[in-house]
Amino acid sequence: MKLLARTLLPLLRPLNGSPLRWLGHGAARSQALSTTLWTQIKQMPQRPKPPPGSDIEESYLKGSGPGGQKINKTNSAVQLKHIPTGIVIKSQATRSRSQNRNIARKLLAEKLDDLENGDQSRNAIVAEAKRRKAASAAKKSKRKYRKLEEAGRHNGQPGDNVTVAVAPETGTSQVQVPTNIEKTSPTDGKSSDL
């Protein structure tokens, strides 16, 4: 590696400074400089390919809903029907017919993938990964707050477990202190149980 660097770097410097500048910013640069082994990263399955055009019946409809007059007067909504299965997809995500066509084809490909592969489809795998991530976050959160609660119990900080109730009709407040907390009297400094 050092030999390669010694031979290539002097040739590359006169062209435009550092070779890292060629990589630019963002994902390409971070991947090029990363030490992560790509074989260890679990990759998601590829997105399913849309079915051939001969299997699709395409129609354009007038849209409805938000978007104003443009949506209501133009045929920008796209409806695709997959002839072999009878699945119908309608897309009105944007005001552009061409973008809606692409979105509808992607949605149809995902639906067909779900139908054919079931639990092994890309959508199912992505949903499972999101579910696992959310469960892990919830578990970490519970662990964190349980640990904080236990630390608060052991410390016995003043003000813990004290409830203040305000009577709405009189505006007076009542403080309820649990019986297991010691209270120090302000006059003599001695503690007494309540």
UniProtKB/TrEMBL annotation:
Domain Prokaryotic-type class I peptide chain release factors as annotated: residue spans: 54-147
SUPFAM superfamilies: Release factor
Gene Ontology MF terms: translation release factor activity
Residue spans of biased composition, Polar residues class: 170-194
Localization in the cell: Mitochondrion
Recorded GO CC terms: mitochondrion
InterPro entries registered for this protein in UniProt: Mito_Transl_Release_Factor (IPR052405), Pep_chain_release_fac_I (IPR000352), Pep_chain_release_fac_I_sf (IPR045853)
Keyword terms, alphabetized: Mitochondrion, Transit peptide
Key word Transmembrane helix present: no
Coiled-coil boundaries: none
Residue span of region Disordered: 42-70, 129-194
Similarity section: Belongs to the prokaryotic/mitochondrial release factor family.
Protein name: Prokaryotic-type class I peptide chain release factors domain-containing protein
Species this protein is from: Verticillium longisporum (Verticillium dahliae var. longisporum)
Phylogenetic classification of the source organism: Eukaryota, Fungi, Dikarya, Ascomycota, Pezizomycotina
